[in-house]
Amino acid sequence: MKRLTNAGKIVVGFASLVLIFLLFFIFWKIGSPEKISSGKNLDKEERIQVKGSHFPGIHLETVTKETDEYFYALNTPTIKNEEINDLIQSWLMNEKESFLKEVDAAPSNDLQSMLNIHLTTVPITDSIYNFIFEGYKITGGANGFTYYQTYTFDISEGSLFSLDDFIDLSDENIDRLKEIILKEIDDHPEISEGILPDQLEESFNQIEELKWSINSENFSVYWDEYEVAIGAVGAIELEIPLDQMAPLLTPKAREYLDRPDLDEGDDPQITDKQPIEDLDPNGKYVALTFDDGPHATVTPRILNTLSEHHAKATFFMLGNQVEYYPKLVQRVAEEGHEIGNHSKTHIDLTAVDNDRLNEELNDTNELVKDITGYFPAYIRPPYGAYSDHIINQATELNQPIILWSVDSLDWKSRNSDAINQEVMSHVSNGSIILMHDIHETTADALPRVIDNLEADGYKFVTVSELLKWQEATGAGPHFGNYQ
Ligand code: ZN
Q1: CATH fold for the domain made of 47-161
Q2: Which of 154, 436, 439, 444 is catalytic?
Q3: Residue 318 Cα, ligand 1 centroid: separation in angstroms?
Q4: Which fold has domain 285-470?
Q5: Could you tell me the distance, in angstroms and rounded to a whole number, from the CA of residue 225 to the centre of ligand 1?
């Protein structure tokens, strides 16, 4: 056995030597494109060199051309997805054409112009990759210029990622991201001494234009030469250790980057809930609940009315709407209202498979948590449709299912008088009232409904407050809480 191992080592050793030689040969050819031309005519044409890729699914060619005036060498990757290929190739084509224009415009002298675009490939998973292009351009004897372009995408899905897929870019997080970047710059005097603060600020103001890459160790930011610093600093690649970025990472990022240690809450149970207030055991309370929002115009109207009456309510939101109106979600939470999970897409949860069920619930939970810092307190399944299985899932998540005891029928009547009539004729102490913050008629009806309920001595509290009060007092309808 030992002999075999030794023989194996020799074979591997020899193979490595051959490989090193081959790689050396390839790099030597790519690094010195002028040596490629072997015939008189060939130097007028583009040459393509295929470089073996050790990333499965990524094919790399180097396109070179040399004339008396210029030469260029462009690392050109292709993957299985045409859209991503088109995007990258049109960028490369654009770089090449603008270089050739600059060559034409440059004063004619003996100095050969050059464009070299080099690709660094940084894998995140087996199918997610960062492409970092570093370009170096020098024309007509001017100073050279180094610049970057970055792409992060999923080869198997054919999807391109944007920064907010990995970093949560809510307003306060953008400020934190700036602080983290500034601190990292400060730690590198060779960069910080040449920084142009106004230009750096300008770059932060266009955060979605930031050039970046990410892997399980670092988050990196790239700036072209002269972009945010004086020429002496050159182009900047700023590497930030990933643990410093931990609070800003999206749940997806933690999953892709396989850094569960960066997840503060490893517990799958929903424990991070908004604090609630104790109520008067002898008081009269109702919980107003609004489903299907947030809505761009109705939700703000309802919030204004609630705030005029110092009334609190519970909003059962759809994850899809949350994604569209994060500022409204933030406002709902900031004004002391409670948020519940009404699924992501308003699908009948009893009609979907388990994966879809989890997606509907978890995506909405994460979206709300990312914006407000708290997970939704409850789940209200669309159409009030649930099964034993859904109850089990909700129990596992520590998110009770909550329905309602008074249906305002606002979705049906779309009439302010009818809504008022329906609520006032069915309300009792401890009622949970169902409304929808997607109909203008509901917003029209609310001031009167609240006035009438107030005249009867009711106060308006969140579902959590109401249920805690019910536990202590035994008042109110007992249903909908399956914990
Ligand atoms: Zn609904």
Answers
A1: Heat Shock Protein 90 (3.30.565)
A2: 436
A3: 8
A4: TIM Barrel (3.20.20)
A5: 52
Distance 378 CA to ligand 1 centre (A): 14
Per the prediction, the chain carries an average pLDDT of: 85
Q: How far is the CA of 346 from the centre of ligand 1 (A)?
A: 6
Ligand 1: distance of its center to the CA of 422 in Å? 18
The whole-number pLDDT of residue 410 equals 95
User: Residue type at 231?
Assistant: G
Ligand 1 center from residue 186 Cα (angstroms): 50
Q: Pinpoint the residues of the chain covered by CATH 3.30.565.40.
A: 47-161
Q: For the chain, which ranges sit under pLDDT 50? A: 1-14, 17-19, 21-43, 264-271, 478, 480-483
Q: From the CA of 414, how far away is ligand 1's center (Å)?
A: 15
Q: What is the pLDDT of residue 292?
A: 96
Q: What is the pLDDT of residues 229-249, one digit of tens each?
A: 999 999 999 999 998 898 899
Return residue ranges of the chain for CATH 3.90.640.20: 164-257
Q: How high is the pLDDT of residue 58?
A: 87
Q: What phi and psi, each to the nearest 5 degrees, are found at residue 119?
A: -105, 130
Please state, in angstroms and rounded to a whole number, the distance separating the CA atoms of residues 196 and 221: 16
pLDDT of residue 256: 87
Active-site residue 436, yes or no? Answer: yes
What is the model's pLDDT at position 16? Answer: 52
Catalytic residue check, 198:
no
Determine which one of 291, 410, 437, 444 is catalytic. Answer: 291
| Per-residue model confidence as pLDDT tens digits over 418-438 | 999 999 999 999 999 999 999
Locate CATH 3.20.20.370 in the chain.
285-470
- Please state the CATH superfamily assignment of the domain spanning residues 164-257 in this structure: Heat-shock cognate protein, ATPase (3.90.640.20)
